[in-house]
Amino acid sequence: MDLKAKTIGVLMGGLSGEREISLISGENCVRALQSRGYRVVRIDALHDVAQRLRDNNVEIAFLALHGRYGEDGTIQGLLEVMGIPYTGSGVLASALGMNKISAKKIARSSGVPTPDFCEIDPEEPAGEIAARIGATLGSPVMLKPVNEGSSLGVVKCKDRAELPSLVERLRSEFGPIFAERFVAGTEITVGVLYRDGQLIALPVLELVPKREFYDYEAKYTGGMTDFILPARLDPIAYEQSQRLAIAAFRAIGCRGYGRVDLMVDAAGTPWFVEVNTLPGMTELSDLPAQAAAAGLSYEDLVETILHTALT
């Protein structure tokens, strides 16, 4: 199929807390596609997204959305109903990837190691939750929203006395949350890309944030995180991390491309943390940096992603 004869709609913005980042990702992808000769239209994925897709005669959707309503299977379901091919994972894998607890359960059932965690009942008193977390996971722990991306709402709690108030605050702001055992070690991320007929793991990127961990500010503020490519891992841990990333990607049923975040402990064991089915595509994002280390320009990466809409 000659994709340059098609109208490509780059879906960006949207309704999530990651809207501003998505707009940057989307604009970058628009410019990259235009530089390669594609006919591109910008689609802000708001409540009238279906009408915008129709009005612009979009034939293929390039998803540059992040977070809820873009990365959780909802926009994917709409595109399926409308018969528009799209980039990234399908409905089920997108929903599973967005729900961190579901992703961890599937990864674990598929033999992919992931840090222990505690689900938090929305009606459970915060004091009882704190006691259960402390007894099960020890200290420190990571508190995370179940259905957010870009580390929105993620908190590292080092003092058990702070757990009840943190639980209450995060529940009121983000809804469902969970606690995860903290893994001390090296924070890494591995891009996974379908290219030339096969699924490949990109070079492993080590993240060294200048904050407590790789939070929202560290991700999207220039100079707040050092990128080390390739990651400073021994060869066995490096290769195992790439294999684990592909295993997690496949277990969750992802398609086309994505990014898998892991922690490597002091013994060199990688632990699956989460999968990002629509990773960021800003100047500071991880996936473009990993692609560049593999010899792919930003334009090469975007064009490769576009072609995965037809796989």
Average pLDDT across residues? 93
Note the overall shape.
Answer: globular
For the largest beta-sheet, the strand count, sense and barrel status come to: 6 strands, antiparallel
Number of strands: 13
Reported by name, the CATH topology of the largest domain is D-amino Acid Aminotransferase, Chain A, domain 1
Low-confidence stretches: none
**Radius of gyration over C-alpha positions, nearest whole angstrom:** 19 Å
Taken in chain order, the helices and strands follow as EHEHEHHHEHEEHEEEEHEHEEHH
The percentage helix is 25-40%
How far is the first residue's CA from the last residue's CA?
Answer: 12 Å
The CATH class designation of the largest domain is Alpha Beta
Strand content: 15-25%
CATH architecture of the largest domain: 2-Layer Sandwich
Q: Work out the count of structural domains.
A: 3
Specify the number of helices: 11
Can you say what the CATH homologous superfamily of the largest domain is? Answer: ATP-grasp fold, B domain
Global structural class: alpha+beta
